[in-house]
Amino acid sequence: MFTYDTLLAAVAVKSGRTVESRNPATDQLIGLAPENTIDELDPVIAAASAAQPGWAALSDEDRRSYLHRAADAIEESAEALAQLLSREQGKPLNGLGARWEVGGAVAWLRSTADIQLPGEVLVDDGSTQTTMHYRPIGVVGAITPWNYPMNIAMWQIAPSLRMGNTVVSKPSETTTLSGLALIEVMNQVLPAGVLNAITGPGATIGDALVKDARIGKIMFTGSTATGKRIIEASAGNVTRLTLELGGNDAAIVLSDVDPEEIVEDLFWGAFINTGQTCCAAKRLYVHDSVYDEVVTALASFAEKVPVGEGLDEEVLLGPLHNQRQFEIVSDLVEKARASGARVVLGGNPDPEAEGFFYPVTLVADIDNDNDLVLNEQFGPALPIMRYTDLDEAIRLANSLEVGLGASVWSSNADRAREVAMQLEAGTVWINSHGILAPHIPFGGIKQSGYGLEFGVEGLKSVSVPFVISG
Ligand code: NAP
Questions:
Q1: Alpha helix locations (H) across 115-217?
Q2: Is 286 strand, coil or helix?
Q3: What is residue 60's predicted lDDT score, i.e. its pLDDT?
Q4: CA of residue 71 to ligand 1 center, whole Å
Q5: What is the pLDDT of residues 398-442, one digit of tens each?
Q6: How far apart, in Å, do the first and last CA atoms of the chain sit?
Q7: Phi (first) and psi of residue 86, to 5 degrees
Q8: Cα separation of 298 and 413, whole Å?
Q9: What are phi and psi for residue 145, nearest 5 degrees?
Q10: Whole-angstrom Cα distance, residue 333 to residue 383?
Q11: Atom of ligand 1 nearest to the CA of 201
Q12: Is 173 one of the catalytic residues?
């Protein structure tokens, strides 16, 4: 079991090539994260390659047992992991924050360990039997973003290990300590070489990982722009890819909602993790008949949500993770304001404040073609559009090049389902947004990526199918 101090000591380094890890709320130095060189990638992939046949040769029962024991280890060190995650990423310990994320990593690992992917009988007609089977790919390269450094890493690691692959994980350079800490804790239990890490900038180390011929599959979660680079970089080896990319999820609120009833779920569907969530609601289309009430309800709810440094037990929303994200959000809100949109709440970050705090911001009466609507803000600024014609709202919701999630809000389940069927997204939620579960497949369409994670489909995506017929 680790404490915060022993965990930090295990993953931070004192010298060599390092990058500073700083708390986004206070700018305080947390520790120095190691930054690997390209030369250091080779032995890591070699170790993963060497360990893979032995790991794959274990019985299904033995591999599952290892994964459950790794989940026990995470539970034992959960508080230390959450403390580090909160400091490095900026998210609060409580609410939908660091403790919740660590709990999610455990839940994903246990659930994935228990999902079965048996061979399938395709033909059995008395004379011929044809069956389909799944074997491991080999070594999986897992590249994660900084918004959920432990959960997203686990979404990649758990199914890969479950199917008999070994893993080389690359955390984002700004959440390296969190990524390394999760792996350190799991490696108290796992055999050497099964779960490995490599650190450093995406453009160099990440790129080299993608291009290495020993990597059979890349699981990537991050921006669409990086996803496109990875498609190109992986072409040389025809490396398999799962790409979970950016989104700009639309939420359509129908005329029959009770604003007070939906406001809490609607708020958290948009502002979870300070809006830095791939499948958060990022564009809100509200019917004219309930528009003013929904905006007022959201503003009153938002005013009561405590914002501050993540380690404060009362806080439910933290700062943005980095300067760049702060600038993107500020710029989009300023452009929206200049266009004549109404900033109902927020939009006024304190210039004296330490850290990257941007207030919860609601922007009403904004044009459908405003940049804040068309671009992924990845922060706490929600554009709220008024509509009268539902078909037009559906058309606008579908009009972008991305399609990760979407949601419909209505008191009439049949009506909501009818609208949901017309929305172009990998998942359409009804009366919620962004709720994920380890047994329900998740993935984007259009430029939000391809390939599914979670559940049986997630296991298939880290396996090679093969057929025996005769
Ligand atoms: P990003 O810049 O694409 O980075 C994601 C990861 O890729 C990081 O580990 C990064 O390393 C690495 N990377 C960067 N360039 C690379 C390259 N050329 N080759 C290989 N790896 C490379 O994304 P981000 O800014 O961290 O995350 C925000 C984006 O992720 C948003 O668009 C969000 O919607 C999306 N996202 C999607 C999902 C989903 O499930 N669909 C979930 C979460 C986030 P460094 O950071 O060290 O440079």
A1: 151-162, 176-186, 207-211
A2: strand
A3: 95
A4: 26
A5: 999 999 999 999 999 999 999 999 999 999 999 999 999 999 999
A6: 52
A7: -65, -45
A8: 23
A9: -90, 180
A10: 9
A11: 47
A12: no
Task: For 230-266, write each residue's pLDDT tens digit.
Answer: 999 999 999 999 999 999 999 999 999 999 999 999 9
Annotated catalytic residue, options 88, 173, 244, 453: 244
The pLDDT of residue 410: 98
Q: Is the CB of 155 under 6 A from ligand 1?
A: no
C-alpha count within 13 angstroms, C-beta hemisphere, residue 108: 26
Percent of the chain past pLDDT 90, that is, above it, reads 99
User: Is 0.70 surpassed by the pTM of this model?
Assistant: yes
> How many angstroms does the Cα of residue 220 sit away from the middle of ligand 1?
8
> Residues 352-375: what's their mean pLDDT?
97
Q: Is 244 a catalytic residue?
A: yes
Distances from the Cα of 284 to the Cα of 186, 277, 382, 432, 443, angstroms = 40, 16, 7, 13, 21
Q: In sequence order, which residues have a C-beta less than 8 Å from that of residue 251 and are 6 or more positions away?
A: 266, 269, 270, 281, 283, 284, 285, 406, 407, 408, 409, 433
Q: What is the 3-state secondary structure (H, E, C) of 27-61?
A: CCEEEEEECCCHHHHHHHHHHHHHHHHHHHHCCHH
Residue listed under structure tokens 């799944």: 134
- Is the CB of 247 within 6 Å of ligand 1? yes
**Cα separations in angstroms, 93 against 84, 195, 266, 317, 356:** 10, 26, 22, 10, 17
Among positive and negative, which fits the CA dihedral 4, 7, 10, 11?
Answer: negative
Structure tokens at 356: 């990257």
- Under DSSP, is residue 121 helix (H, G, I), strand (E, B) or coil? strand
